[in-house]
Amino acid sequence: MKPLNVHLGFAAGPQGQGVAYARVGAERTLRVPFSVRRFPALLEREVAYAALTALANVLHRRGVSRVQVLVEDSRLVEDLLERRDVPAALNMAYVRLRCVLNQFREFAVAAAPSDYSDLTARARSEVAMHAAA
Predict the structure, then answer these.
(1) What is the C-alpha R_g of the chain?
(2) What domains can you pick out in the chain, each with its CATH number?
(3) Distance, CA of 55 to CA of 4 (rounded, Å)
C-alpha cells in the first residue's frame, strides 16, 4: 500500500494560537487548529513541532496508517531524520511528536518544494487576521 502524500503549511500567532493547512492528495485541504507555547529564541521551531503533531493526530484518528508529509521547515525534517539533539525547550515537544509518529505503520517526512508555500501563506494570513481582531 502506498503512503498518503500530505503537504503541510502552518503558522501561529504570538499568543500561541495556530493553524495548519494540509493538502491531502491533490484534491483535499484540511484545516487543523493547534496551540503552542511560544519561545521566541527558537525561531518558530516550536510551531513546526506543534503543527506536525496536530496533523499527525488528525490523520491517525482518521485511520491513516502510512503517510509522507512534506513541510517547508527543513530544521524539522533534519531533527526527525537525523535524530539530533534539540534545544532543551523543545525536548517535550520532540518526545510528544515522536510518540504520535510511532503510531503510524509508515511515516516519512521531507522538505517541501517551494511551490507549496501557498499553504503557509494561507495559515499566516489567517493567524494575522485573528491577531488583528
Answers:
(1) 14
(2) 4-132 (3.30.420.10)
(3) 13
Identity of the amino acid at 132? A
Q: Measure the CA–CA gap between 24 and 74, rounded to whole angstroms.
A: 20
Question: Which residues are CB-contacts of 125 (< 8 A; sequence separation ≥ 6)?
Answer: none
Dig out the grid coordinates for 51 from the structure. 503543527
C-alpha cell at 56: 499527525
Measured at the CA of 71, the angle between CA 84 and CA 16, to 5 degrees, comes to 85
H or E segment and range at residue 30: strand 28-35
Helix (H, G, I), strand (E, B) or coil at 31: strand
* pLDDT tens per residue, range 49-89: 999 999 999 999 999 999 999 998 888 999 999 978 888 88
Which of these, 56, 54, 4, lies nearest to 28 by C-alpha position? 4
27-53 pLDDT, tens per residue? 799 999 999 988 776 678 899 999 999
Place of cell 494575522: 128
Spatial separation of the C-alpha atoms in residues 80 and 74, rounded to whole Å: 10
